[in-house]
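We emphasize that the prediction below concerns an isolated chain of 285 residues; any contacts that depend on oligomerization or on bound cofactors are therefore not represented. The input was used exactly as deposited, without trimming of termini.
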Amino acid sequence: MIPGALLAELDSVSGIVSRPAEPMTRHTTLRVGGTAELWIVAETAEAVARVASLCKAHGTKLNYFGASHVLVRDGGLEGVWLRLGSVGLGVHEVEEGIEVGASHPVAALHAWMCSNDVPPIPYLKGRSGTVLEAYQAGLLAAWVSYCVVLRGTRVTSLPPEKHSEKQPLLRLGLLRTPRPVEEAQGQLRLLPEQIQALGMPGRIVDDPPNEDAALLIREAGLCGVRLRGARIGHIESNAMINLGESTESDLWLLIQMIRDRVRLHSGIRLQPSLRRLGSGKVHHG
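Result of the prediction step, given as a token string:
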């Protein structure tokens, strides 16, 4: 339960839009999930910091909703959930290179770089997903010069090696030319097609080592299989389609069916790519 005093103070914060009992079907790519107890969209870095400060003062955890390709449980999300508005979008030039919002589509970033005579980053052309997802997949490692993050109750810039995954990412500073990045000890050098597939948005299960999850699903005879309101893709088998009125429980049951059938067919255990958020108990806002 969110303290009433916190709700009253949040109403006076400029640069945010707050909505109680916000349906998460509006904010997830698979259009499933219950409601968020309090949903806040912050348009400025100052608003982000102010919301964080108020939540801390009232002893309320501030949750960050970054990527939309997640499974929000049918019971919804308890507490305060923050999503970036315009502060997480847009591209502009800075002294060392460019700065881009974490929520900015990577395909739009690639197009901006091409139209502004900035050498484009490989593997971003035509790619779906956001800058945040590409960053988390490691595709931007050689280009990142600094991270603009929420650290406690302050928005600050940090070098990438100092950035923790627990610190919400607002924006990234990118170099015009990549710097050398040392490979981890014993790590194999990836082929271009493997790099292209890293953290591919839309996937429902991860590729096992030296295997293609989509091929394993296809070989198990699961292409196009339907369960209630959800269906496995006909062409891209490592994807799910919400046919309408599907619930998170339906999609999760379909993922479990994929794991069980593939394990019986090939002996390989697949791991879900989709992160589950929220409570299994239905709340009524």
